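Colleagues,

Please find the record for the four-part complex below.
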Amino acid sequence: MLTDERHSFILEQLEQKNTLTVQELVEKLGHSESTIRRDLTTLEDQDKLVRIHGGARKKRKPVDEPTMDEKTVKFMQEKEKVSQLAAYLVNDFDVIYLDAGTTTYAMIPYLEGKNITVVTNGVPHAALLTDYNIETILVGGKIKQRTKAVIGSIAERQLDEVNFTKAFMGMNGVDITQGFTTPDTEEAAIKRKAIRQSNQSYVLVDVSKLDEVSFSKVADIDECTVITNHLSDKQQRLKDYTRIMEA
Amino acid sequence: MLTDERHSFILEQLEQKNTLTVQELVEKLGHSESTIRRDLTTLEDQDKLVRIHGGARKKRKPVDEPTMDEKTVKFMQEKEKVSQLAAYLVNDFDVIYLDAGTTTYAMIPYLEGKNITVVTNGVPHAALLTDYNIETILVGGKIKQRTKAVIGSIAERQLDEVNFTKAFMGMNGVDITQGFTTPDTEEAAIKRKAIRQSNQSYVLVDVSKLDEVSFSKVADIDECTVITNHLSDKQQRLKDYTRIMEA
DNA sequence: ATGTTTAAGAACGATAATGATTGATTTCTA
DNA sequence: TAGAAATCAATCATTATCGTTCTTAAACAT
């Protein structure tokens, strides 16, 4: 198989899959790791993709650049699992709140076809949701530049007037005594309100956020169900304090 | 087999296959590698294909020529002029309303560096505005899929609580007796409210919208200043009814 | 018949691509 | 936090491909 053909193949795969492992490509293309690695490096040099430990990631449009530390394929795929599990919890006729952030953003494709209404404070989320033909209500208010999240008093007041069956939140810290925490005070306020307005709340996090404490407290540990990928032994005791789902 | 025949054969194959290996051609044509290589080199010199290591690749299309005919390009440029003039009207400390739609979207780059607050009901607008580091408030509410505009009762109510120094609106129809009109009833309602809440309102339109009437009425002809590119003689009489700026 | 021209194949050193190996680095797991 | 496992970049020998040159053979002109 010609070098060029491999390159096209790799890019095609990335269109559909977001992340690829080197091993995956070795099997599908029948070439050695060395060759695949060389291909990936070349394509990265051409700015066609981003190399990450274990494989490669689709290059993002300059828009929803979350500048996250998505440094390994494994990390990405675990994260994807969390989003998938969360989306699985959504039923027809739910009115859900979708918090801004990349993890909740990843849920959206899995919501396709569900007969639901989504309220969100994420600007990119709103755009994608409507692309998937999902009834979307955007929370109004001031926009934070880095995360493109709607925050501030206007937003808070607007949330007062609505109620959700389920809320799906991103979070920076999850700790038994400090509860759920996040760095930005204003974002914390919005998150807090969304959780209070929701019948049932879920916090989506990868393991790196467990046992972490960030600046601003959002809620107590028992107010939300945690959805994550895999708990270490030490983290198992979180289960004594709140509901946990493992993807 | 004649040289010319081989050449046509190779090009035919490329129509279907995108890439060819030298070996492949050696087998199908029953000639030596040397000959095939000579063929490929010749064809490359004639710009009929691209040589790659191991074979050849179909020549890429002249990279998505802007295919727009001159008329369209000119049209776009006129539109750009309108946006530019509108942006020129914005001063420091203004609190402006930016209606959803492409014409107002085009204003954004020209707002760079101004010390202003922008309220908008356009989701893409909000994203771009924050990229330009402009203080942005997004109106909350239901999102219309096609235009990514925020509309509906929630949005209307939110507009009740704010006031603007200037509002910049897109519009589908401008007519002396019917005033300003647009196809979607809900969008019309939002536009109407924004205009009422604004000290001064501008409607950005290209000539094709003049003397047009759409379904839903937004405002009377004298409520807004029209910003457009060039008026035909017949359209000059609009000036008797409202203020007009020509870009 | 002889020399010229042209296309083709063969030969070969140069260059490029590949896959295996290795030791360093990163990530994972206990 | 230490050791194991996975992944990495760098290197090297092997193989594939390339461009060039040389040779042969047929077509054609003189």
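Chain B touches chain A through 32 residues (CB under 8 Å).

Comments are welcome before we finalize the supplementary table.
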